[in-house]
Amino acid sequence: MQVWTAIAAGLVGAAVGLLVNRRIGVRSPAAPAAAGVIFAVLALRFGLDPVLPAYLYLAAVSVALALIDIDQRRLPNALTLPSYVVGLVLLGAAAFLVEDGLRHFGSALAGMAGLWIIYAVLFFLHPRGMGWGDVKLAGVLGLYLGWLGFGAWTVGAVLAFLLGAVYGLVLVVLRRATRKTPIPFGPFMIAGAILAVLFGGRLAPYLGV
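and the corresponding structure tokens:
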């Protein structure tokens, strides 16, 4: 059953990716491929758990935001701000359907506030290195990571900066950028969060959490 759920989710994800391409005017197989794979793996991760719709929504909006940030260097309010409402509604509904749901939802709220505050502080300390769109995205990602616990939340937060740093270093070594070259950070935030959702439990011990 879980395999069939993953296959169905993957097909839905690919369709969502095609829709994203049409909406943002990008002709690339990256969106349907990425969305299809992420949807399928999330279905394997959660099965028919009531939180699955929430994380599938996260995957859909994440693919769109990552492509837009890469192409246009922005994270539009039209996607980030409604994602707070959608995430709170979907996770809030799931909280009444799963064991310890209210505790998970409380952790989600704490994760949302915590990651938003961290990015807001970084923005005010170094506004040239952090966009306000990144701050708004941080709250959304923190919500979903917080539901899974402090370990996954920490892994997602750390991986974003680690992946961004590695990518920037590779560009510098290849002389395709300098240390002052602006790099869209949203895709690394999203990649870190998705990896933490999928593998946070296994990676958390390596960070001592």
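(Above: one complete record from the training split.) Residues 2-207 form one domain.
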